[in-house]
Write a structure and sequence with these properties.
Number of strands: 12
Helix content: under 10%
Shape: globular
Number of domains: 1
Largest sheet: 5 strands, antiparallel
Structural class: mainly beta
Strand content: 35-45%
Number of helices: 1
Radius of gyration: 16 Å
Distance between the termini: 16 Å
Strand order of the largest sheet: 5-4-12-8-9
């Protein structure tokens, strides 16, 4: 196995290797999370449109309108929905698959899973969707549903797993 562009692994037969990257969050209060590890600032996450203004998105990624605020507006982040924007260092060439998992409660007894093949984020739509941005970063919107009532959770974990190929 050799190294391709950017120093990422590639094979002669299979091309670029699929990378798996996990982002973990601890639910600390209702609609409040903390990245694990705490110093991982690559993920912008929120439950309301105020967390995803155009200025906030552009400042987080260092790009201009790679993702738009309309993709995370009040309709798209209705009850029990959450948005994520991942600063991937502009290194993603192809986003293959996204998995989202929430384990709720202090005993982590209830698990909600969502899986999506990226096809883009539709403005003002409450659906679980994912998109690879033009500059190589990733955005995900997850509708957790009502089981459990995600807006009221005060304990648990969230894990977002990205499967991607490098530039």
């Amino acid at each position: 196995m050799g190294r391709g562009p950017g120093g990422f692994l590639s094979t002669a037969k299979g091309g670029k290797v699929v990378h798996k990257e996990e982002f973990l969050f601890k639910i600390t209060a209702a609609v409040t999370q903390q990245a694990m590890p705490i110093d991982d600032s690559r993920a912008l996450t929120g439950f309301a449109a105020a967390a995803f203004t155009q200025a906030i998105i552009d400042a987080h990624l260092g790009t201009s309108s790679e993702f738009t605020a309309a993709q995370f507006d009040a309709t798209a982040l209705g009850a029990d929905a959450q948005g994520f924007i991942f600063d991937m260092g502009k290194q993603v060439d192809k986003l293959e698959y996204v998995e989202a998992e929430c384990q709720s409660g202090t005993e982590l007894l209830t698990t909600v899973n969502r899986r999506v093949v990226p096809a883009g984020l539709t403005d003002s739509t409450l659906d679980t969707e994912a998109e690879l941005g033009a500059d190589g970063n990733v955005a995900v919107r997850v509708d957790w549903g009502n089981s459990p009532d995600f807006d009221a959770l005060t304990a648990g974990t969230v894990k977002i797993t990205l499967y991607w190929r490098a530039k």
